[in-house]
């Protein structure tokens, strides 16, 4: 792992297969997530297939810096731009985002379309006003629940030490920063901006997830968007079935995005 300064912050970065034919950037979710969710699932598969794989802990997460403020969606996507500059990645990249990471990836693609070959988001949605309100409420609610001293022992007993350790890390973020307030005040693109996004997008959802119902709406919003549903899984589909998600992501990066890129119309 490498510590890399980007802007005013230091980030924890992992790179596999450096020098590969194309770069795939893996962006993790929020609070209890970090780059290890990719390191132990799909990242080695991409590297073995000859891709340059970049993973990093987002601000406030894992071993990256945790500033007290600055957690709007534009801050997260701005970090991605700075990191790619520091790494010397100049060509268009394939962005893979899990949960909140997919929202960051879409925001980055909207503001840097020439630097993105495709977006593949897993259990994600675009940053909208409704999304900002929902996320802020969820983060504030989680912070409140974690003030209860009985919560951590219950999590460790129910889900194990690893999950409890992730929750301890998230407590530092939720209790020590303004992330809930900053997400609510994020810079939100208007609907017309999304309708002009000229980047191929694949959105993957677990059939049992609350987000699965947005597939039709998303295909109508983004001009080059395809969706895929994984049956028998919910929001944790990435870590729940990497043997399914891995080949799906790899096929998309290899060939799947090209059809939408060339056609310029949404797939049926």
From TrEMBL:
Named from the GO MF annotations, one term is: aminopeptidase activity
Query: Which InterPro entries does this UniProt record tie to the protein?
Result: AB_hydrolase_1, AB_hydrolase_fold, Carboxylesterase_BioH, Peptidase_S33
Give a single Pfam family match: Abhydrolase_1
Q: Which UniProt keywords apply?
A: Hydrolase
Q: Name one GO biological process term.
A: proteolysis
Q: Where is the AB hydrolase-1 domain?
A: 23-135
What's the domain of life for this entry?
A: Bacteria
Protein family membership: Belongs to the peptidase S33 family.
In Swiss-Prot or TrEMBL terms, this protein is called Alpha/beta hydrolase
Q: Which organism is it from?
A: Streptomyces mesophilus
């Amino acid at each position: 792992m490498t510590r890399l300064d980007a802007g005013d912050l230091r980030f924890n970065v992992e790179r596999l297969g450096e020098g590969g034919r194309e770069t795939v950037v893996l962006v993790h979710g929020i609070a209890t997530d970090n780059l290890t969710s990719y390191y132990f699932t799909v990242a080695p598969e991409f590297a073995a297939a000859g891709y340059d794989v970049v993973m990093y802990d987002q601000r406030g997460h894992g071993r990256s810096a945790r500033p007290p403020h600055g957690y709007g969606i534009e801050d997260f996507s701005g970090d991605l731009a700075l990191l790619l500059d520091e790494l010397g990645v100049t060509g268009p990249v394939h962005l893979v985002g899990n949960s909140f990471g997919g929202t960051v990836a879409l925001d980055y693609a909207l503001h840097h379309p020439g630097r993105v070959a495709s977006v593949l988001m897993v259990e994600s949605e675009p940053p909208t006003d409704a999304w900002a309100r929902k996320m802020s409420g969820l983060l504030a609610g989680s912070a409140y629940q974690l003030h209860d001293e009985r919560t951590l022992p219950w999590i460790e007993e129910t889900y194990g030490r690893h999950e409890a350790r992730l929750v301890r890390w998230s407590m530092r973020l939720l209790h020590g920063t303004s992330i809930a307030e900053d997400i609510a005040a994020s810079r939100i693109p208007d609907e017309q901006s999304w309708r002009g996004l000229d980047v191929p997008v694949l959105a993957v959802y677990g059939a049992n997830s609350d987000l699965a119902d947005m597939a039709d709406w998303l295909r109508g919003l983004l001009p080059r968007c395809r969706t895929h549903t994984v049956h028998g899984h919910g929001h944790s589909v990435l870590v729940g079935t990497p043997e399914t998600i891995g080949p799906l992501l790899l096929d998309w990066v290899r060939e799947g995005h090209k059809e939408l890129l060339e056609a310029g119309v949404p797939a049926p």
